[in-house]
Design goal:
Elements lengths: L3 E4 L1 H5 L7 H9 L3 H17 L4 H11 L7 H16 L6 H12 L3 E6 L3 H7 L4 H5 L2 E4 H4 L6 H11 L6 E5 L2 H9 L3 E4 L3 H13 L1
Parallel strand pairs: 1-2, 1-4, 2-3, 4-5
Helix pairs in contact: 2-3, 2-5, 3-4, 4-5
Length: 206
């Protein structure tokens, strides 16, 4: 029997990333747009795990692009880049929010499981309805563990007080889905709310 719905944040609860942020980052730094896409991936795990802060990360990204700044100039630019990054992800899906809350009202537990840096939570945690209304919210930076590491799925099941097979999980990355399936969750790749509703109905009726 299914007892819980668990959702990722990026591209699930949030609308797809506003990728025009990379153009603005390029304008600010005079670095190529693709530099941010490629360099960010080098540091994302550390950033989501909470072992590096956003300003330090963007200073590294600037240095990777051979852009060196002195003192406050470097910090100011890194802060601007971080603002562009975060703003691109703060577009919440009203449809997903309503769907998840309706499922919770039906008596299912609602959880959040997301790779997330500290600074994003500092800015937006209290402004995101599902973060506030969920029965549990598991964020990588607070656990020191990131998806798809197995331990974060174990923590999620424990905090929900559910067996893994009682949990339906949605994420937009296949690696995270594969790890959830290996942990015993019923897990589905997120491709949009229409398919998710079908997957959810299939899970709870099987």
């Amino acid at each position: 029997m299914i007892r819980a719905l668990v959702l990722d944040y990026g591209n699930v609860i949030s609308e797809p990333q506003d990728t025009t942020c990379y153009d603005r980052m390029s304008d600010l730094s005079k670095l190529p747009v693709d530099h941010f896409r490629t360099s960010f991936s080098k540091y994302r795990s550390e950033f989501d795990r909470g072992t590096i802060d956003g300003v330090s990360m963007y200073k590294k990204i600037l240095a990777d692009g051979k852009r060196y700044y002195i003192g406050t100039e470097s910090t100011d630019l890194a802060e601007q880049l971080l603002h562009e990054d975060f703003s691109a992800w703060f577009h919440i899906s009203k449809n997903v929010t309503k769907w998840a809350l309706d499922i919770q009202k039906e008596g299912f537990k609602l959880g959040i499981l997301s790779n997330m840096p500290h600074e994003f939570l500092d800015l937006y945690e209290t402004k995101i309805t599902l973060f506030q209304e969920a029965d549990i919210a598991i964020f990588s930076c607070r656990e020191g563990i990131i998806k798809p590491e197995p331990a974060i799925y174990e923590i999620t099941a424990q905090k929900l007080n559910c067996e893994p097979h009682e949990i339906v999980f949605f994420d937009d990355l296949q690696a995270n889905i594969d790890a959830a399936l290996a942990a015993g969750f019923k897990a589905f790749l997120w491709t949009g709310i229409d398919q998710a509703q079908k997957d959810w109905n299939t899970a709870i009726s099987s």
